[in-house]
Amino acid sequence: MTKFFETKLPGLMRLVRPTATEHNNSLYDEVVNIEELSRVIGKPFHLQQVNHSRSVKGVLRGLHAERWDKIVWVPRGRAFSAIVDIRPDSPTFGQHATFELSNENRQALYIPEGFANSAFALEDLDYMYMVTKLYDGSDTFAVAWDDPDINVSWPHRDPIISQRDRNNPRLRQLFPEKF
């Protein structure tokens, strides 16, 4: 059974997945029971899409803020993940929490809408995420990964980053009224 832990950012949950069952060169791995997750978060998690990305060591994706709830985990490799609360009315607006996700530590994250998330590849990795809305590209936005107002202590100061993510605005550009 998955164990759920609150984090310092209200709504963001750390999940510890049960130990995988291995037998005769095969593996069974439960990521999360959606019914159980829905009880814990107090609302239905309506799974709409499952996504898979692959990154080589040194790649940074994020800080992305899609308008959906998601569950993220790393079935292969290791990722440093920074999650930022960007809900304008939240008492923890602009604060972040960091996690290491890997198959070895069996951690996953439940990230509700209103948070920006990232994955920095500490080694080659597969990154999986289940989301509550279909992706069409029209409702996504992002925050600069190196925003000094957020001040994430990244494990590497010169990551491999997409052109799209290089041009992301700072938090104060998105929410000037908060500064």
CATH class: Mainly Beta
SS strand fraction: 35-45%
**Number of beta-strand segments:** 14
Number of domains: 1
The mean pLDDT is: 93
Structural class: mainly beta
CATH architecture level-2 label = Sandwich
Strand adjacency order, main sheet: 1-2-10-7-12-5
Poorly predicted runs of 5 or more residues: none
Q: What is the third-level CATH name, the topology?
A: Jelly Rolls
Task: Walk me through what this model shows.
- With 179 residues, the protein is mainly beta.
- It has a single domain, classed as Jelly Rolls.
- It is 9% helix and 42% strand.
- The protein has 3 helices and 14 strands.
- The strands form 3 sheets. A 6-stranded antiparallel beta sheet has the order 1-2-10-7-12-5, with no helix packed on it. Strands 6, 8, 9, 11, 13 and 14 form a 6-stranded mixed beta sheet that branches. Strands 3-4 form a two-stranded antiparallel sheet.
- β3 and β4 form a beta hairpin.
- The longest helix is centred in the N-terminal third of the chain and has 8 residues.
- The chain is globular and about 55 Å long.
- The mean pLDDT is 93.
